[in-house]
Specification:
Elements (H helix, E strand, L loop, with lengths): L7 H4 L4 H15 L5 H14 L2 H13 L1 H9 L1 H7 L10 E5 L4 E6 L8 H4 L4 H4 L1 H9 L1 H7 L9 E6 L5 E5 L11 H5 L4 H5 L13
Parallel strand pairs: 1-4, 2-3
């Protein structure tokens, strides 16, 4: 990706904010304050090497491999590291499993602690004051805002993420996915389902 200038045909596809970012990058690069190659590497890292796709692969593997799932729940940090998902704010990650009568949800009430290695950067709403306060006081209402309606007899357990401990939710595998490959299963695992504010999304758009 070049940061020197924006071609006319590219300009028409960029938002005003993207154009401003490109212009700022160009100025900073010309003054020697930033290295465009380093920026490209950073972007590639966040797009391809860390992020929700990593977490989705972990969840899908746990759905099809019972032994892996047991290791993941018992020794999450070591198990994630064995897949190459270590560091990047994921050094102290534990995995909590959703069950038919138990739904887990994660919040960071103090700031925005988050397992970057498997979920990437936290979404804006995760860092917002309303979410951080309401997730603790009214988790069922927050889930409803996200389009998740759980049975009244389902316990909702809220985990407060900190610098010492971050959480990854292992959502329940949807019915009707027997025989699916890990790759196909990973495609239905959403970021929100691994935070606990959502559920896996099937190809037809339904969430389960």
């Amino acid at each position: 990706m070049s940061h020197e200038h924006v071609h006319d045909h590219e300009r028409s596809h960029l938002s005003e904010m993207e154009l401003r970012v490109r212009a700022l990058e160009s100025v900073l690069g010309q003054k020697g304050y930033i290295d465009p190659a380093a920026i490209d590497l950073l972007i590639e890292t966040y797009e391809k090497k860390i992020g929700p796709r990593n977490g989705a692969k972990v969840v899908a593997k746990a759905w099809v491999d019972r032994e892996f799932k047991q290791r993941l729940l018992a020794e999450p940090v070591q198990t994630l590291a064995s897949l190459g998902y270590a560091g990047m704010q994921g050094e102290h990650t534990t995995v909590v499993e959703n069950m038919p009568k138990l739904h887990n949800m994660v919040v960071c009430t103090l700031c925005s602690c988050y397992p970057w290695s498997v979920l990437g950067l936290p979404p804006v709403w995760y860092k917002s004051g309303p979410y951080r306060s309401r997730a603790v006081m009214d988790p069922r209402g927050v889930l409803r805002d996200f389009g998740v309606e759980l049975p009244e007899d389902t316990e909702i357990r809220v985990w407060d993420s900190t610098a010492e401990m971050r959480y990854l939710v292992l959502p329940m595998r949807p019915l009707g996915t027997a025989g699916w490959s890990v790759e196909r299963l990973a495609a239905i695992v959403t970021r929100d389902s691994m935070i606990g504010t959502g559920l896996p999304r099937l190809p037809d758009g339904t969430i389960r």
